[in-house]
Specification:
Helices cover about 45% and strands about 10% of the residues. It has about 230 residues and is α/β, with parallel strands linked by helices. It has a six-stranded parallel sheet with strand order 5-4-1-6-7-8, with helices on both faces. Strands 2-3 form a two-stranded antiparallel sheet.
Length: about 230
């Protein structure tokens, strides 16, 4: 009997196009605290490492001098809390599935593939979003940035998910859209499928990957090679 295939996916920019709702939350916070707002394309470059990193990198990128004159940690904490509060209440206003995602999820279940999520979003926000967009039932396990004591690009974030799902590293895949996902998969020794034009500052050519896809249409052809690997 062949070992069941396990596929672990990133969330933002991989399963779901979350940038519109993230930019809304980001700009709400920026306006409230007197900082410059950003455009959607700017936010896509800042998303991968979680809310705290997003806020810190955004603020320090446009207002470092002003920010350094105030209580950095205190203000950052308040801004992150405001971001998460607003985003939690408006998590699925404009967010939508990437093209082909739902067909891929159905196909995976029909082919007895185990599916999990490994994201640097806080766990409760990830679960809430998956439920709101009505695909949570496809996943056996969801790990967020605060599920364990470490998160991507630490490979244990990924390997723990696979272990909890009773998968085998030698029969697992990861799908993501950024160098954070790529570094995680490579360090774990897991083949990596990269989605083009992801939430990253890097060019596709600069990110490690075994396979490159535009969206989920036709991804079954790639996955099929691993099913009886």
């Amino acid at each position: 009997m062949s070992q069941k295939l396990t596929i672990v996916l990133d969330l933002d920019g991989t399963l779901i196009e979350t940038a519109p709702d993230l930019i809304s939350a980001h700009n709400h916070v920026m306006k409230k605290f007197g900082f410059k707002t950003k455009y959607e394309e700017d936010i896509k470059k800042l998303v991968g490492k979680g809310a705290s990193s997003l806020i810190t990198r955004s603020v320090w990128g446009v207002a470092r001098n002003k920010f350094s004159k105030i209580n950095d940690d205190k203000i950052k904490k308040e801004m992150v809390e405001e971001f998460i509060d607003y985003y939690s209440k408006n998590i699925c206003v404009e967010s939508k599935l990437l093209v082909g995602v739902e067909n891929f999820l159905k196909w995976s279940k029909n082919n007895n593939i185990s599916l999990g999520v490994c994201t640097n979003k806080q766990e409760y926000l990830a679960v809430k979003l998956l439920k709101k967009i009505k695909i949570n039932h496809y996943f056996e396990y969801v790990a967020g940035s605060n599920t364990f004591e470490y998160c991507k690009p630490d490979p244990r974030h990924l390997t723990n998910v696979i272990e909890i799902m009773q998968g085998n590293l030698k029969n697992s895949l990861m799908i993501g859209d950024s160098e954070t996902d790529a570094e995680t998969a490579r360090s774990a020794g897991v083949p990596f499928i990269l989605i083009e034009n992801g939430y990253t500052e890097k060019k596709t050519s600069e990110i490690y990957h075994d396979h490159l896809i535009k969206d989920f249409v036709g991804i079954e052809q790639i996955i099929s090679k691993y099913i009886n690997h």
